[in-house]
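Shipment paperwork, digital attachment
Item: protein structure file
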Amino acid sequence: MRNFLDNASKLYYEGSPILTDGEFDLLAAKHNYNNVGYTVTDAIEHAFQMYSLQKYFSLADAPSLEGYVCTPKLDGAAVSILFLDGTFQLALTRGDGIQGRDISDKLRHLVPSSISTKGLVQITGEVVSPKSIPNARNYAAGALNLKDLQEFKSRDVTFVAYDMVGHNLNTFEEVMTQLSQDGFNVVTKFDASNYPTDGKVFRINCYDTFTKMGFTAHHPRAAFALKEQAAGIVTTLLDVVWQVGKSGVVSPVAILEPVTIGEAVVGRATLHNIQYIRELDLEIGCQVEVIRSGEIIPRVVRRVNT
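Attachment content:
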């Protein structure tokens, strides 16, 4: 399973995810997997490290933060944009948080070319697509991999800023107000109701306090994500069949004892590939946990030993 999750993590940060955040979080929790990021081969360093957020599934388990701001956790592709003395210089994918891939040619068409803040600053945010688009996160992330710029321009993608580093403002809310005045969509004012989200972000409003609390190797101590974890249903694996997808790839499908998940009756679920089946140790007749990814696609996430 570690190899499968390593590959899923790599594909996510390359912009071609094979799992939703909910699926990845569920599998990572079940199998105690905590690797973050991947190594970019055509890499450029971020001016400031892009940290991930510590994830919690209950506020009771999360740290108590005084003077926090709560914003939606948008589900798209994280990027950084560098400005020098108010002028756009560079945009990078998140990559491993230390370095990413140059996507300046694309982001120039999504954000203002100049800002009012002087000096060297890095704006971070999410490229997102409306949730009315099937697999909206994959659609947004995949757009950043397109080689044809005209095709990218035709994509329904939006950049939403959620932080800026290198400024001298006092609070997160002041930064969001400034970026909004400069023409950016900002997470504090963005209407996320039509876009995919996978939880909420809690962070200290005061930047001085935020900085003093410091960072671990991967996470800021003054912010965390409260995630929405998909609930699974246990049923019986009756059979495995193989089907050919539109791309010509042959993949396994689980035939299940029908169960109701949400408002749908589920009798089939994806199993990804033979490696996934082996790593979950699946066999005909065993009990399995199934979720509906994005409330649409059923997936088997683990074997349940009874």
